[in-house]
Amino acid sequence: MIKTKERFNPKARMEFRLLILLVVLFYLLAFFLRLDIYLNMAWGELTAPWLRNLLPTGFAAFFGLSIFTVRRWKEARHEFRQKELAEIKVQSLAYYDQLTHLPNRTLSMDRLSQSLHRAQRDDKLMALLFLDLDGFKNVNDSLGHSVGDKLLKAVTRRVQPYIRKSDTFGRLGGDEFIFVLTTTKTEKDISVFAKRIIQLLAEPIFIDKNAITCTASIGCAVFPWDGSDRETLLRNADAAMYSAKAKGKNQFQFYSAKLNIRATERVQIENGLRKALSQNEFVLRYQPQASMEDGRITGSEALVRWKHSVRGLISPGKFMPVAEETGLIIPLGEWVLREACKQAVRWHKAGYKDLCMAVNVSAQQFQYSDFPRTVKKIIEETGINPAKLELEITETTVVHDIESTKHTLERLADLGVNLAIDDFGTGFSSLKYLKHFSFHRLKIDQSFVRELTQDSNDEKIVLAIIALAQALGMDVMAEGVENWEQVSFLRDHQCQGFQGFVFSRPISATDFTRHLQAGTRLDVEYTFTPGDLTPEDFDEGGELFASLNEPDRSNKQ
């Protein structure tokens, strides 16, 4: 509780002093009156008969003044209490988060500065941990902000019992929290604490009959190794947290010098993305999808590239995670879908009416309440045949919220579009959603195809996926097919389609059209026809990516 130095204001203090003085005077007067009466009665006569008449009046005035003094004292105490409560409220608004009642950014930063000064004075370690909830924006978008607020409260209640009185647990804003550990002795102590927090938050939280699993990514900077001032520690802890997210989320990372470079690059990418959206710096590449039966092109997958004005073509692996974290993936995804549909219509009008266009849908796009409406609008704007549009959705997106997912998929199915499960086998692989939802195709993730002929376990997984799809009446397409042995294996086991470097890298619309016009197809007996055209002739994307510091090895991207 906040304490104040002044118990009463100066005016009230003066009133009390005067009242007390009057009470004392009346008390003395009464004392002398009683003494005078006693002495006169002892002598048998009253030397001052007027005292007998004054005595009752004096006592009445004394008691009246006493009652007035007590009442005034109670009023002053009430005024003081109201003032004290008002001060507490003001300071609470200024220094505490109103949702979780944790120290807010202002108070957290003040405590961090104090802890840093003590650590410098005593020559001890001090750790700053930066926590960010994974997928919190998806909870807000899919279940509503009220559920998001309840989730933040539940996270606070779950973590708070494990915070020592000497440490600080504060909320900076949104889904960002910090921990200031002041009695740290070794890195192991920090790791134990961080892992305990991660384990606590990995358990489901039940809110309004929803079981929400909201994991956390934590980054840590340690004084004096990772910085000697508040701003540096904050920046480095934040960089470590983003490193934890980049490595798969739901984990803890210490800061290293390389992280600072990555953090700076991330800020540059975020700022550049906003500019790129307004200046139309994005382009699409199309990776052919071929039939395993005769090697002909049956469709294409649209893949976005960022054609930066200075850095050239930037790999999606660098900017897509930032787009998802910042919410820019929604306008970017809408742009990709619209442009891909426009290109598909051009090919259809050119005579390639059976060509299917596949477009990836991010989790945030899918969970966005207006996504089916957006798809319908784009179909109407571009005039594409919905049956020739395939939306690829990952397993993780599907199992996030079964009821909401079912409703969205039903609305998309009503539009007549095809639905595919992308990267099958890398997510939850729950058969429950396959039972409830009508998908047209399973796409085997490239991680299983890459070592298909060298790893017996990958062979078994691929065979199981193919058998499962056949049992459910779904097509199967393999991603990341790079060599003839993989083609042979997939063909022999009735995989209907494939895409990958063995046929072509992602290429421009112009080069894709040249493939169509030339009738390029992959002969499953290991030869190309016609012989004067190969995918490498049009591999514009491959040449551009070779100039990057970190070349993109993804078959899809």
What does this structure look like?
This protein has helices spanning 10-43, 50-95, 105-122, 136-143, 145-159, 187-202, 230-246, 257-279, 316-326, 329-349, 363-367, 371-382, 395-398, 402-415, 431-436, 446-449, 456-471, 484-492, 509-518, 540-545; strands at 126-133, 168-173, 176-181, 205-207, 210-212, 216-223, 252-254, 282-291, 297-308, 312-314, 356-361, 389-394, 418-424, 441-444, 475-478, 497-498, 521-523, 527-529. An 8-stranded mixed barrel has the order 8-9-11-12-13-14-15-16, surrounded by 5 helices. It has a 5-stranded mixed beta sheet with strand order 2-3-1-6-7. The two termini are 57 Å apart. It is built from 20 helices and 18 strands. By secondary structure, it is of the alpha/beta class.
What are its keywords?
557 residues, alpha/beta, eight-stranded mixed barrel, five-stranded mixed beta sheet, 53% helix, 17% strand, disordered N terminus, disordered C terminus
Sheet with the most strands, sense and barrel status: 8 strands, mixed, barrel
Structural class call reads alpha/beta
The count of strands amounts to 18
Q: Name the poorly predicted regions.
A: 1-6, 526-555
Strand order of the largest sheet: 8-9-11-12-13-14-15-16
The proportion of residues in beta strands is 15-25%
Query: What Rg do the Cα atoms give?
Result: 37 Å
What is the averaged pLDDT score? 79
Q: How many separate helices?
A: 20
- Helix proportion of residues, in percent? 40-55%
Kindly report how far apart the N and C termini lie.
Answer: 57 Å
What is the global morphology? elongated
